[in-house]
From TrEMBL:
Keyword terms: Aminotransferase, Decarboxylase, Lyase, Pyridoxal phosphate, Transferase
Protein name according to UniProt: Aminotransferase class V-fold PLP-dependent enzyme
Cofactor: pyridoxal 5'-phosphate
Residue stretches making up the Orn/Lys/Arg decarboxylases family 1 pyridoxal-P attachment site domain: 6-270
Origin species: Candidatus Avidehalobacter gallistercoris
Cell wall biogenesis/degradation in keyword set: no
Protein origin, superkingdom: Bacteria
Length: 469
């Protein structure tokens, strides 16, 4: 097979060309009618496991070939298509690597999917605190933290890393992986926000650095449809496919699967050109803000030694103290919707699909000018809170009797679910952890400033029916 082949796309196209009457699901029978009329030809591609179209959960034909080409592209031994997002990949990777009752090492900025995997698999967490800058920018765990934790806890079976972070920070992944290998633990890398790396900086990609399991979220930056991602596996003794069969839908969307096949082929053909385009776009944004009164772009020079920045992201902050919310507000006034705003930062994602980078740069310059007339409101204190106490495991928290109480009265209680500020979507309190009074104040402050916290509904949180002594 060649890089530009698209076996699944071709199989679906061939099926459509046969013109068979559809006596199978989906019920629209390939016709976009009524409110679905805007979907156009996509309806014809929305098929099922018909003759010649293979089966995601037992691939033998077109899907297997497409996954093989994906594995070659990302530098993995095997690759698995995901239609339940990187969430399913993270869950399957953890459950494939860690058995019930065993321990997983992971950073505090791990995605909520890591929590749900631990709840499903009765896995015990060992947390690593994530350092941050004075401005409140989370960095990444360092190799010496990994080495120290694994030396103190030889019972750890797997180590989970986030690379790069949602904010675009890249830590020393090679050093962290080396520390884990010295202790014989399986390595899992959430590379959801770094899917372009195998194509634009392959030497920095997690799979090529030797990670055992790598999750890339293709819909975020690679051009495939929403919910699509890829799980790469570099060890034949690990079987995430077993867990994917249990976790993913039994009715996978063929347009989603085909979009992964098509996006991979296009990236293999256009990688060099798109990498150059992204570098040029980043320079345009830097030039637009070169003499700006307020806005700055975070880059590697803003980070401590040992950390780098992913230039496919544009992380904005105000040199004079505007909050991320204020920055985002002015961006919207200039016709630009950011990915998120939190604390003192607002984030823009840069991709190959930015066809008008000059317009994007002009919007940044215009937003900077508008901020001059805005009194900086600052942002909540970026000081990191201590790690909450893990009173019971996520598994037992998920199965415990619960009750809803006001957040204001929750200090000292054990959380039954995840309390997750959005953005950026990283749990502040996890399942089975004690909700400290300081955390209650922090969450209330966040919501008062316009932020949202998943897990807080109408002012209430769900807690375990007992009081932590």
């Amino acid at each position: 097979m060649h890089n530009n082949e698209t076996p699944l796309v071709d199989a679906i196209a061939a099926y459509i060309a046969k013109g068979r009457q559809r006596g199978h699901m989906p019920g629209h029978k390939g016709q976009a009618r009524g409110l679905l009329s805007s979907f156009g030809e996509l309806a014809a591609w929305d098929v099922t496991e018909a003759d010649g179209l293979d089966d995601l959960h037992a691939p033998e034909g077109a899907i297997l070939c497409a996954e093989h080409l994906m594995a070659l592209a990302v530098g993995a031994l095997k690759a698995y298509f995901l239609v339940n997002g990187a969430t399913a990949g993270i869950q399957a990777a953890i459950l494939a690597a860690v058995k019930p009752g065993e321990m997983l090492l992971l950073p505090r900025n791990a995605h909520r999917a890591a929590w749900t995997a631990m709840a499903l698999g009765d896995i015990r967490p060992l947390w690593l605190e994530v350092p941050q800058t004075a401005a409140g920018l989370p960095l990444a765990v360092m190799p010496e933290q990994v080495e120290q934790a694994l030396s103190a806890h030889p019972e750890v079976k797997a180590a989970f890393f986030v690379y790069p972070s949602f904010y675009g920070v890249c830590g020393d992944l090679a050093g962290c992986l080396a520390a884990a290998r010295r202790h014989g633990v399986t390595t899992i890398v959430d590379e959801a926000h770094g899917a372009p790396l195998p194509f634009i900086a392959p030497d920095l990609a997690a799979a090529r650095l030797g990670a055992d399991l790598v999750i890339d979220s293709w819909h975020k930056s690679m051009g495939s449809l929403g919910q699509t991602a890829v799980l790469g596996c570099n060890r034949p003794d690990l079987h995430p496919e077993h867990w994917l069969t249990l976790l993913q839908t039994s009715s996978p969307s063929y347009p989603l699967l085909a979009s992964l096949d098509a996006a991979r082929a296009e990236w293999q053909e256009q990688a060099v050109a798109w990498a150059g385009q992204l570098r040029q776009e980043r320079r345009l944004l830097e030039n637009a803000l070169a003499g700006a009164a307020n806005l700055r772009l975070i880059d590697g020079a803003d980070l401590p030694a040992g950390f780098a920045y992913d230039d496919t992201k544009a992380l904005l902050y105000s040199a004079v103290g505007h909050s991320g919310g204020q920055i985002a507000g002015k961006l919207r006034e200039c016709g630009l919707e950011p990915e998120f705003a939190a604390g003192r930062f607002a984030l823009l994602l840069l991709t190959y699909a930015d066809t008008a980078p000059d317009s994007l740069a002009a919007s940044l310059a215009a937003a900077d000018a508008k901020l001059t007339a805005v009194n900086p409101e600052g942002a909540p204190d970026p000081a990191a809170l201590p790690l909450p106490e893990q009173a019971i495991t996520p598994f037992y928290a998920a199965h415990a009797d619960t009750k809803d109480i006001p957040l204001a009265a929750a200090a000292g209680c054990i959380s039954a679910g995840l309390l997750t500020p959005y953005p950026p979507g990283i749990p502040a309190v996890g399942m089975g952890e004690v909700i400290e009074a300081e955390m209650v104040e922090k969450l209330q402050e966040l919501m008062a400033s316009g932020g949202k916290v998943q897990g807080v509904a109408k002012g209430n949180v769900t807690v375990i029916c007992q009081k932590q002594q």
